Amino acid sequence: ATEDMHIVSLIPLFSEHNIHHVPIVDQDRRLVGLVTQTDLTVAMYRYWAAMP
Question: Which among 21, 27, 39, 45 is placed 20 to 30 Å from 11, CA to CA?
Fold first, then answer.
């Protein structure tokens, strides 16, 4: 995945490919981070919990 992708767009990667983490790369394809299923779950929970 690239660093400009929205985190929600990673959901299909996790579910369709049965993976637990996705590397994040910059424009030069250098590793800049890693998103885990836990990271995604926490981000989604915090987003929905903040909604009125």
Answer: 27
- DSSP code string of 41-52: HHHHHHHHHT--
What pTM does this model have? 0.73
Give the pair of three-digit tokens for residue 27.
């424009």
**3-state SS, residue 17:** helix
Share of the chain above pLDDT 70, in %: 100
Handedness of CA 35, 15, 4, 51 (dihedral sign): negative
Q: Where are the domains of the chain?
A: 7-49
Rounded distance between C-alpha atoms, residue 46 and residue 23, angstroms: 22
Amino acid at 39: D
